[in-house]
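Incident log, structure service

09:12 report received: a user says their structure output differs between two submissions of the same chain.
09:20 pulled the input from the user's history:
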Amino acid sequence: MLSLLAILAALKTDFMDGISLSKSNEKVFKEDASSDTDFLNESNTFNALTYDSDSDSEDDTAQNTDSTKDTANESEFQIAQDSELGGVTAKNEQGKEQAKGEQPQGSSNEKFSEMPTEQALEKSEENADAEGPHPGFVYISKALPEAKLDVRYATTHNFTGRVVEGYLSDNISITKEAAKALKKASEELKSKGYGIIIYDAYRPKRAVDSFIKWSQEPENNLTKAEFYPDFQKEQLFKLGYLAKRSAHSRGSTVDLTLFDLNTGEPLDMGSPYDFLGPISNHGTNLINETQTKNRNILKDAMKNAGFKELKTEWWHYELINEPYPDTFFDFVIQ
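09:34 re-ran on a clean worker, output below:
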């Protein structure tokens, strides 16, 4: 009996120990699970913070990139064609320093900053050696190197008595079509022993506008005796000696005379260039036979090349088939 009680007591002890062990393991399991959950939560929190931080960084980067693009866009040239200025304007400081109506060097609208350096340099050199100051135009010095230039409007020796607005130099130009026709006339004249002297070709619209303003100013008599002794200057437009819209501004009109290739001396045309009066008319009886012959030599060659004369000015010729019959340009001469 005693032995049986001892066995029962031992079994009870083992049973109680088992229960304690089970509770202990359950506690450990719960603590481990709680630890794992906390770890996962902390990890997810870290990841979320990292993601938010990266997102903010990307947003900042995007904003910086946009800001950089905006800055770059503001510094790029804004090319604009203006019927009055005939050139371009620029929004950045470099463009503001350029003269009004001027075009950046060369006539191309390509942005050099978008090209590789070597290509940009080649493009710059190409534009520096451009044939003309504006698309469709060519410098007379390049098209007709044999011609002499006497550009009075780039000096004070003209009927206004001052350098005419828009003439920053005597580097005058003309449309390519007119240059080709003028070359033909020059070759015909050369075969007869004559060369050409060019007084004017393309004329900016602003120059014509300055003539109008000049005609409205009080007379100062500085140039009247030499250029318009028979009229008051306010009459010159009404009589057709000056025009409020000049064919010169369309780019295919030229003022010229002749010189002897042997002596280099200008031919006697009966009246000086820009003399505003009846003696300068074609067909006038106010000049002698030799002077009439000299005018006709010039007129015949120019008409054979496709030009037409202006009745009131022996020096003035317009290309009949001009390329820009309805356009009055205003880019400056420089």
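09:41 both user submissions now match this output. Likely a transient worker issue. Closing.
09:42 reviewer note: The chain has three domains: 1-75, 76-130, 136-319. Residues 1-8, 10-129 have pLDDT under 50 and may be disordered.
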